[in-house]
Amino acid sequence: MHVIGRDGDGPDTPEGCGQAYRAPLGRFRAGDGSAGARVAVDLDRPHAALIVGKRGSGKTHTLAVVAEGVAATPGVAPVVIDPMGVLGGLAECGGSVHRRPRVRPDAVAAAAWPALLDLDPAGPVGSLVWRAVAERDGATLAAARDAVADADAERATRRAADAHLALAQRWDVFDPAGLTPADLTGGDVTVLDCSGLSPTALDAVSAAVARSLYEARVAEDVSRLPWLFVDEAHAVFDGVAGGALETLLTRGRAPGVSLVCATQRPAALPAVAVSQADLLLAHRLRGRADVEALRDARPKPLADDLRSRLPTGVGEALVVDDATETATTVAVRERWTTDGGASARASRVDATADGDGRETSEGVNPAGTQSRPWT
User: Fold this and answer.
1) Which of 136, 272, 312, 318 has the fewest CB atoms lying closer than 10 Å?
2) 364-374 confidence digits (pLDDT tens)
3) Topology, domain 2-101+179-332
């Protein structure tokens, strides 16, 4: 089995543990379309991975395949930010799905609160919010509002600051007993279903999770190495969470925090999200700007023919490995868990069964996952 992402730096994986520290990905696809050797992703060391592809190309499926491998591996802990609510099937690995994830208010940096609330941090209202959160250590939003009420500021400023903090309370994602790094790194997969959250609430949860995982590893408060998976990453980078995610990209390797992002719009990501990815898994892409964003961040020998090498088949990915500076086509394997992101198909509905119609069992394997034409 070929393991992508292993560059030979540092000590080798302990003898006899090689199989335990890799995530099965699929098989190489030969030029004639035949299946080649098995391929896996290295899990022994931290990585920054980027999965791209147009809608329906299989990028979320691929993200879930890697997450399944992480969930089955000792010493690591997968955490999945699921903006669309389609990755709950991963909990079949033995983990949990948080349908309404809540985080501690102090997991969002005090300096980030003005931007989170769309306030100017240098303005009177934004600076008051910043001071209030910092003064009460972000323990609760109620405490921050009390600090605003007691502040030496004009009444209009205090009222505006309080109104913004009250709005944040109504998002219903902040709780002093919210998820902690210890909760997220127990070893089993943790899926944060954010499909019911507003974009700003999603931003808050993502920022809190990314920052808390990084700081917990820096302080050595948790032993397992976190792997943070972010689907629809272009939506998450566009806010205060972007700064926390960029920290993982640029500084996460040393403390051992991995980041895997999936997006259909790589051109909408900050340049660092593409350039810092040591693993690129590219499905079908059509947009010129998206292809150019990938080319600009790759070494010249790989960038020159990137467009011509992008796969056309659903579920096939061009895997670019910075460790070996190679690019190969891989047919991604089937999911081990239920695929909640598979497109609905009329052929799976038995309209004669009853008035509502039922999905037939055809096309579903015994484990409950949708059959895939690329495996």
Assistant:
1) 312
2) 333 334 433 33
3) Rossmann fold (3.40.50)
